[in-house]
Amino acid sequence: MDRFDNQDDTQLDDRLAAQRKIIKASLNEIANEVGMIMRDEGLGFPVYITVRNSGDSLATIATPLDPS
Question: Does the pTM exceed 0.85?
């Protein structure tokens, strides 16, 4: 049973790696879109986007300010 679990984990890791590669290649465009939308909504504070190398999340979006 472990053999199949390891195969599933490897396939998931491969899919996540492929998605991260796409996000990394598009990061400038994503950041520009997010920035334009935020400015249009009157939210003039910086946003940081990072793409992880491992784990379950693909990217993290953060801001140094409290947007609420």
Answer: no
